[in-house]
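Researcher: Please translate sequence to C-alpha cells.
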Amino acid sequence: MKSLTVFGLAAVLALVLSATGCQVPGTASEELKILILTGRNNHNWEQTTAVLDSTLKECGLFSVDITTKPDTLKYEQLKKYDALLSNWNSWPENDIRWPEAAEQGLMRFVNEGGGLVFFHSSTSAFYTWPEFKQISTAAWIMDSTWHGPISPVTVSVQNQEHPITSGLTDFDILDELWINAGQNEAFRVLGTASNNEEDTGEQPAIFVGSYGRGRIFHTILGHDARTLRNTGFQTLILRATEWASTGQVVYHDCLNPANDY
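Model: Translation complete:
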C-alpha cells in the first residue's frame, strides 16, 4: 500500500482537528475576528487585556486586535469584526458618554449581528446611556452591590442546553464575587456563583442576551489576571466569544475544568 502523500496527511490532520473543535494552524481565513475594547478600567486593564489576548490567540479559533481608544471607532471600523470583547469602563466617572458616532456605531454593530462579550466590571459603565442598558446586565449598583475579599468561589452551571455551557461542569475559581449586581430581566442566566467562605447565596453569574440580530454574553467573574488564567474561566470566555461570533460552539477543550485557583 502506498504511503500517504503530504497532502493526504494534511487532510487527515485537518479532519481530526476539526472534530476536536480546534483550528488548523495557519488557516487565518477561518479565524473569527475579535476586537478587544480596553484602555480604561478601574481594574488593571493592562494585565487583564494581555491575558485575554493570549488566551484567544492560543485557542487557534480567533484573530485578535486591540484598541485602547474604543470611543473613536465608528460602525465602518467595527463591522469587519465578528465580536467585540469589552474590558473597558470609566468607573467611578459613570456619567461619561462616548461621541454620538461611537455610540451609534456600537449599537448598529450589535443590532446587525455583531457579537458582544462582557466580563466582570465592563458593564458598569454608561449609567446615563439608556440604550447601553438594553445590551448589558449585572452592573454595579451604588448602595446595593457589594463584594468581600478575593476568595474561593464555586461556579455552578444551571443551563446545560445552551451552546456555551453544554457539557461544561461546575468549577472553582479564586475571585471577587459581586453580590446583588443589577439585573436586566431580558438576559437569561446560564450559571450562578457562591462564595465558599461567606453566606452569599447563589448569585447570577453567567448571562446571555440579544439585541436585534446580535448575541451578547456577560459574566460577573474575572477580577484580575490570575482569575483570567483559571481553566474554567478561560473555557467559559472562549466558548462565549465563539458563540457571540457565530451562534455555535465547536471549542470543546477543558470540558471538565480543574479547580486551579
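Researcher: Any highlights?
Model: Residues 1-22, 24-28 have pLDDT under 50 and may be disordered.
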